[in-house]
Write a structure and sequence with these properties.
The structure is a single chain. By secondary structure, the protein is α+β, with helices and mostly antiparallel strands. It has one domain: 2-Layer Sandwich (Alpha-Beta Plaits). The chain contains three helices and three strands; from the N terminus they run E-H-E-H-E-H. A three-stranded antiparallel beta sheet has the order 1-3-2, with helices on one face. The longest helix has 13 residues.
């Protein structure tokens, strides 16, 4: 799994996930439950990951739809 997106905005995570699922790429969101610990103030970013085989295509899909991506790690 590779991280392709990191943001504190849950709406971007939901939109990006929907875009990827529409293209048969199953995303996995990390740090979703951190909002319980932080009190919902948006301090900790959520991370969107995809399987290594889908990284290039997933990044292209999100960029084409105006979503700013994380730096490659």
């Amino acid at each position: 799994m590779k991280e392709i997106l990191r943001t504190t905005d849950p709406t971007i995570v939901a939109f990006a996930s929907a875009l990827l699922r529409a293209e048969d790429i199953e995303p996995f969101v990390l740090d979703v439950n951190m909002s319980v610990m932080e009190g919902g103030i948006g301090l900790f970013p959520r991370r969107l990951t995809v399987a290594d085989a889908h990284v290039f295509r997933a990044r292209a899909i999100l960029l084409d739809n105006g979503i700013e991506l994380s730096e490659e790690r």
